[in-house]
## 1
Amino acid sequence: MFHFSNIVRTKGDPRIVEGGPSLKRPEDQLARALGWFSIGLGVVEFFAPRRVTETLGVEGHETLVRAFGVREILAGIMSLSVDKNAGLWARVGGDGLDAAALLSGLTADNPKKGNIALALLMVGGIAMLDYRAAQDTKPQRPPRDARRKLYPNRSGFPKGIESARSAAKQIAAHATVGQS
Amino acid sequence: MKALVWHGKEDIRCDTVTDPEIQDPRDAIIKVTSCAICGSDLHLFHNFIPGMLPGDIMGHETMGEVVEVGSGVDGKLKKGDRIVVPFTIICGECDQCKRGNFSVCETTNRKRHLAEKVFGHSCAGLFGYTHLTGGYPGGQAEYLRVPFADATHIKVPDGVPDEQLLFLSDIFPTGWQAAVHCDIEPTDTVAIWGCGPVGQMAIRSAILLGANQVIAIDCLPERLSMAEAGGATTINFETESVVERLNELTDGKGPEKCIDCAGMEAHVLASQPDTLLDRAKQMVMLESDRPHVLREMIYVCRPGGVISVAGVYSGLSDNMPMGAFMNKGLTMRTGQTHVNRWSDDLLHRIEEGQIDPSFVITHTVPLSQGPEMYQVFRDKRDSCVKVVLKP
Ligand SMILES: NC(=O)c1ccc[n+]([C@@H]2O[C@H](COP(=O)([O-])OP(=O)(O)OC[C@H]3O[C@@H](n4cnc5c(N)ncnc54)[C@H](O)[C@@H]3O)[C@@H](O)[C@H]2O)c1
Ligand SMILES: [Zn+2]
Ligand SMILES: [Zn+2]
């Protein structure tokens, strides 16, 4: 079987013959997709805010769109990191902000209100995915009040801790220099 | 053979790979009987240490039986010998090896040009670690090629179980070196941040080296209970103020000796705002480490004291309180562990029954369950402290 990673192996080092199962679950893949989507959207909002405001008929709000772009990029980076859960919750919050901003543009005199309605629909759909992914990627650390095994008997000193202490004291008493 | 292979962030798989072969006359191949997952492996699991490539075999805490030796091993090892493999690959001949500075051996990093660019100079080759340190295949596998095997080994006697010897490969000498670096005096208080496997070994080492008082800091009850069992007074940094408690326990003077066994991934806590800032910067690659523990140590250490750093840092750390460090006249000592500098003495102490490092093992599972165990160890599920894998 061809494994891409074998290309860079130093000659003679073990190469993959058959891949084993991955730890990645579907929700991890979803989180990743949403992370990249977030970055992509953020880049458009940041670099082409005018295109966005024109499409939505809300010219003049470019600065806000830019700021939203930064937010999208940061949430995206976070969703791709080991703290993906925090990133996804940040996205859920961001979806709320997006929806609120869109709603405020949905006025009777906006000629592009059709586009806004469409955008709202999209935000709703994405928000559902964000929420799903955030729910499913909850960190698996046990909660702080979870019952835990304790290890009060594992001193590591077969002769007991007092014997370890006194052995050290005897050596210290005899030694002149602290060289070991 | 089966091996645990790095495929990317949080993606380690138990793959089937080709068996290792003798590549150089100084090589040996061992059949692995036990190996372990280390806190350093978690930094790689999170892709916080640069220079990993998909397809790299993990693992640097390994022992086993020699099954093949190259022609240049010169009788120093033979088939059937039982060895623990130090995580630092050493030549035994260069100037640094002669000085006992094994972890900065000048010969064994086969990708030295990378290390020279990033660190200024090359350090020793390491097993199952980044390509900055040679990208050598690691020992979480059924077989391991040991380069420079005539020097890179610790011969161990039959009759002592693997569990007592395995940690000579890394965490026991690492905790020991961290304590030795403190030049402990009988009146000293030694404070140790992090009660993971390395911290546990550092606690026992500080006791064996005669510290008057050992204080251990973490937030996980199971690890704190193990620290207490080893003779430490404990501080839970989630519920107590570390600085206040340390000052209380030292009549306001601060601990003379401070050891960092936590490393670059300090917990992120709202009550420690610097950790939030570090995490944010780390995400956008403005900083590589979260050095909260270093900052805290410098702040609380008694003037004239020693800061000993066993925890791994990978690149750049921001906002280091150099003013306090300088004016308090502190000394910092650090390094990857010079395993073979300490291994004879420590083996002797194990054989004598002074210490039994197997106390730290909480999970023993087949190699094939390794990938899940990375998650269990990382998430501190099931009160996990140390995982041993059996190929
Ligand atoms: N120098 C060496 O040669 C060497 C060798 C082995 C391991 N290491 C390093 O030592 C470190 C510890 O390894 P480990 O196997 O014990 O890992 P680990 O992850 O099990 O232990 C780290 C511990 O630090 C604790 N911690 C986190 N933030 C803290 C804080 N602010 N204050 C106090 N404690 C805190 C964690 O709760 C955890 O228990 C890692 O960085 C590892 O890479 C270095
Ligand atoms: Zn290690
Ligand atoms: Zn050398």
## 2
Amino acid sequence: MNPLRTVAQPVIIAEPAYLLKRGIAALVSDMVRTDVLFIDDMGELNSHLDKNKVHAVFIDEQLLTDKPSTDLFFQLKEQTLYVGLSANPGQIRHKNKFDAVMDRSGTKEELVAAVESVLQPGTGESDKAGSLLSSREQEVLKEVALGYTNQQIAAKLYISRHTVISHRKNITAKLGIKTVSGLTVYAVLNGLIPKDQIR
Amino acid sequence: MMGKNTVTSDMKMAEVIHMNYLLLPVINRFGIKLGFGDKTVEKVCRDHGLNLSFFLDIVNTYHDPSYFPRDKMRGYPATLIIDYLLQSHEYYNRTMLPEAEGMIEKLVSTCSGHCEDLRLIEDFYRKYKEELQNHLSGEEIHFFPYVRALVEGKTGGKDLETLRREYNFSYQAHADEHESVIAKLVDLKNILIKYLPPDYDVEVCNNLLYWLFIFEDDLKDHERLEDVILLPVLENIEQQFRNQQ
Ligand SMILES: [Fe+2]
Ligand SMILES: [Fe+2]
């Protein structure tokens, strides 16, 4: 068996159904070495997210009924992965805000695949699809390597900040490189930007 | 949960090393050197005046990723944990970082052909080394002394906010630093594994990678001890301090 990857920030499971939350926790700890927290009160969850860095949140869509607390929940936290749990994943509310959606009644294999695609970037879907960056992703990567912020990149490329962040998540998942300085090295090695343009 | 592969007090220290030689630097951090003869773990710890239970927990969390008795470890005195963390810092400063740097320098100097790219990686490493050294010394100057001041009651009648400011300690900044020093190390490994340009010496680079894997595991274990054990212990101490005021 491969040694488990350590994730420094915890994973939060916001799911009122006892068996389901235990089940997801078990899948998570099979896959990564991390702390798992159970919070199914939106107020508590939002204040936790406000104060702490969190690697991923698995949340039941039933908790996302109240508008103010839902808006607060989705306020962009770049490092956090959002996973929705739904009885009807195709129709889940706020679909475009989630990094992944899981079927509450999925088979073990489906659930494992879903958790894997979120927690083990690079070994899931994106790798199978080949690790080539799309041309849009290359553009975003270039700007990142040149030292621009998400806000600046959004303005330069006429896309929303949310879209920039989503491209960045994909770039990181495909390349296995997360930090700006690491991405810069990649960009120079691959001729996306000349060395003398690094800030 | 004591698995078959757990280090126990009645094992011989020599067996422990045979079971997992990567524990050697961890054991060294407790002031223990080779040449244990047939002494058991318990005997060696007693000879060195160590807290046996703490020693076992540290060695086992390092040895077995699934072994992590959170609540029990949060019961150890903060100063005991800090002393161990300081020893790890010394190891990173004295051994881990310079060794890796030496290997990277060798990688560049044995390069044949287009070596610009390898220099880029060397640059990345140099900056990383500086960042990690700053993180470590920051903890030594701010974070640990802040915890110690609270534990020892040397707070001069000040409130927490003032103390935090004086010691320049913030949970958020600390968490950001941890995330960055781990992420950059992982990035460096991936850059070497996935994107290394071809004009390099295989042996030199393999050695570097072996070393970086060990480095990463060690550092992650270290930061986990700080994040998941020491910080909650600190939060407790802060709470007690507030209650007393
Ligand atoms: Fe440290
Ligand atoms: Fe640290």
